[in-house]
Design the sequence.
């Protein structure tokens, strides 16, 4: 077991995030910035506050971007922020207002990556109502933005993946939460692979979908191809995607990365109340059965197993040490006291 097992990286007095005004925040989605220098990473946070708890101090908004220069398997320390000395929201939009798509409460990041030309891409979900009676009313769309200056300024595309039934999914669009899995199936074919799911945790019963696009065409939806079952075999080019698993139950936040040739998937398992992982030799081949890794609760008699109540997330660091030593970032939010509201680092995960 690695020495970092639930180490908080923000939301406490010794956090290096505090020097940039970041206290309570969640998600902390890591991405590889080594294009800009050896060992560099970025971390994208959701709704962020200057105080350590959710709702305390000043609300900075979402998404928030911090930078790091250390490698996984060491405690994550932050060395910079998208706003300079004071971190700031990277996307330009108005909260609790209609920005052209309907009322947006906030925009929650899903993933980021840097393409071979040095352009940073960010995918996010626009939230319409956190307290919607059904997931189909919670999200407005999935958006895409890019930065050509390592996250300092961003351009937001007006073309989005809408959650209004226009894509034939009756408001439960599987394109709402997207994870940039990586470029190249085993790093060989030039496609950017994206794993995606519905917003929320209720309707996703058969796993995420898989799609790909030439990485230079990421903003052109017509160039996307779907991985699907045609009745007798799985194939690329299906008119609609087929969920990857059957009957797995609902999942929440999702992350997929290629770690030294092995594709690793991590997700919040709703029914299991844990972070689970799977692996595959190729992203469009058979995935292993899920393996439970980090628990929100355990039976009383499993006293030797640590649990982290009200956990979610579970994002893979793309520069994890190896496929048998993966680093995950997991959120925890005590919704009764609003503290802790932070991101924890877990090393030594064997998926």
Sequence:
């Amino acid at each position: 077991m690695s020495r970092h097992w639930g180490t908080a990286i923000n939301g406490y007095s010794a956090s290096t995030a505090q020097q940039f005004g970041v206290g309570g925040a969640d998600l902390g989605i890591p991405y590889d910035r080594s294009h800009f220098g050896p060992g560099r990473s970025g971390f994208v946070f959701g709704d962020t506050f200057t105080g350590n708890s959710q709702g305390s101090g000043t609300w900075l908004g979402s998404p928030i971007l911090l930078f790091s220069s250390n490698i996984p398997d060491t405690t994550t320390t932050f060395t910079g922020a998208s706003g300079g000395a004071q971190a700031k929201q990277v996307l330009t939009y108005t909260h609790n207002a209609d920005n052209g798509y309907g009322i947006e409460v906030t925009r929650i990041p899903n993933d980021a990556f840097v393409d071979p030309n040095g352009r940073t891409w960010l995918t996010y979900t626009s939230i319409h109502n956190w307290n919607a009676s059904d997931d189909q009313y919670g999200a407005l769309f999935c958006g895409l933005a890019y930065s050509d200056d390592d996250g300092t300024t961003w351009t937001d595309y007006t073309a989005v993946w809408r959650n209004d039934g226009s894509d034939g999914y009756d408001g439960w669009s599987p394109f709402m939460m997207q994870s940039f899995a990586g470029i190249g199936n085993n790093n060989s074919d030039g496609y950017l692979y994206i794993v995606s799911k519905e917003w929320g945790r209720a309707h996703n019963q058969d796993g995420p979908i898989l799609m790909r696009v030439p990485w230079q065409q990421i903003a052109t939806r017509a160039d996307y191809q779907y991985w699907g079952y045609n009745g007798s075999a799985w194939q690329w080019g299906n008119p609609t995607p087929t969920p990857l698993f059957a009957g797995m139950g609902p999942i929440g936040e999702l992350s997929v990365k290629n770690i030294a040739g092995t594709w690793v998937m991590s997700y919040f398992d709703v029914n299991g109340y844990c972070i689970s992982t799977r692996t595959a030799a190729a992203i469009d081949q058979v995935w292993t059965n899920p393996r439970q890794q980090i628990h929100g609760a355990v039976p009383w008699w499993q006293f030797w197993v640590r649990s982290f109540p009200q956990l979610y997330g579970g994002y893979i660091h793309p520069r994890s040490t190896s496929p048998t030593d993966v680093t995950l970032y997991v959120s925890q939010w005590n919704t009764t006291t609003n503290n802790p509201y932070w991101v924890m680092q877990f090393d030594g995960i064997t998926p």
